[in-house]
Amino acid sequence: MRADMRPERDSRPPRQDRQPYGEQRGRGRYGEGQERPRYGEQQNGAFDRNGRGERRFQRPESTVDAATALRERVAELGAQITADYAGKDLLLVCVLKGAFAVMADLSRYIRLPLDIDFMAVASYGASTKSSGVVRIIKDLDSDLSGRHVLLVEDIVDSGLTLQYLLKNLRGRRPASLEICALLRKTGIESVPLDVRYTGFEIPPEFVVGYGLDFAEKFRNL
Ligand code: IMP
Predict the structure, then answer these.
(1) Are 58 and 48 in contact (CB under 8 A)?
(2) Distance 214 CA to ligand 1 centre (A)
(3) Ligand 1 atom nearest to 98, measured from its CA
(4) Of 80, 98, 131, 189, which residue has the fewest beta carbons closer than 10 angstroms?
(5) pLDDT per position as a tens digit, 151-193
């Protein structure tokens, strides 16, 4: 990974230049009468907002832009999850291999004592399309009963993989079971899924990097 792409907390700007979770406030960068851009719209241009005020992904101009947008959004998700799960016994379940990158970053933005576990799945079928027939290659070490489980996924495409996983994990009687997906493709036929935390909605194109592969390559981009 190139140094300029690394999503390190240390690479954030000095504290007075950081943006709070919401719009920027109290800075002199935008003059009188100039409209202050909303959080995420300035600098990298990697996302804007749809009519409902939700983030909508725009093609970033460079990998550095994408890295910045990812880091900021994952930090926001971490803050949201921290608030939602305060006082609860949280278990993060990483769906390998694709979710390893978001899991590593997200877990460090969640300011709670939590457990982490991993499961590896593979879907049968062509390399760029999920068949919905999922094979568990590595199962969890943890017992889920009575735990608050948050499933961390890289991307929801047809939703078939998650549909299978939810059914499987629900049978293990967790206290709660929610999904955090970094990316969700829109404008495609997909199974209805209640994804509690979504990083970005993206167009239905095949994407790689930040854990996502094509034929096992490019996860490191
Ligand atoms: P689904 O079952 O169609 O939702 O597909 C989910 C899985 O397919 C993800 O966990 C990824 O492993 C893989 N996948 C779906 N879309 C992409 C993509 O655009 N790039 C890389 N992998 C993808």
Answers:
(1) yes
(2) 10
(3) 12
(4) 189
(5) 999 999 999 999 999 999 999 999 999 999 999 999 887 788 9
Residue with tokens 């930040």: 210
* Ligand 1 centroid, distance to 157 Cα (angstroms): 5
Give residue 88's identity as a one-letter amino acid code.
K
Q: Which residues participate in catalysis according to the annotation?
A: 157
Predicted TM-score (pTM) of this structure: 0.75
* CA nearest ligand 1 atom 20, residue: 207
Q: Which residue has the tokens 């943006």?
A: 19
The binding-site residues of ligand 1, defined as CB within 6 angstroms of any ligand atom, are: 98, 130, 153-161, 206-208, 212-213
